[in-house]
Design brief:
The chain is mostly helical. It has helices at 3-17, 22-29, 33-41, 48-57, 62-78, 87-95. It has one domain (3-95): 434 Repressor (Amino-terminal Domain), CATH 1.10.260.40. The longest helix has 17 residues, at 62-78.
Length: 98
């Protein structure tokens, strides 16, 4: 699994954990629905700016999404599982500037 694909899966996992549709995430991020789809499906290389606004719209630090993506890549190799951080941990990281 490539990092871009794993990142898209991480975004989708967090979005679904927060019970958001792609359309709701797009609206929160101020981007087009197709941009969210492209991020989640790794169809195109998304700009860094797009990744930042998606992370902000999910109230999840970009670093957390990257860590989840890296863990998903390990899972694919090892066949293990990954736990998503609780919402309050994500919010705490955001307020601390992480």
């Amino acid at each position: 699994m490539q990092l871009q694909e794993a990142f898209g899966k991480a975004v989708r996992s967090v979005r679904e954990q927060k019970n958001l549709t792609q359309a709701q995430l797009a609206e929160r991020a101020g981007i087009h629905l197709s941009a969210v789809s492209h991020v989640e499906r790794a169809r195109r290389q998304s700009s860094f700016e797009t990744l930042i606004v998606v992370a902000q719209a999910l109230d999840t630090p970009l670093s957390t999404l990257m860590r989840l993506a890296e863990e998903m890549m390990k899972i694919k190799q090892e066949g293990t599982t990954v736990d998503l951080p609780p919402d309050d941990e994500q919010a705490g990281n955001l307020s601390q500037g992480h």
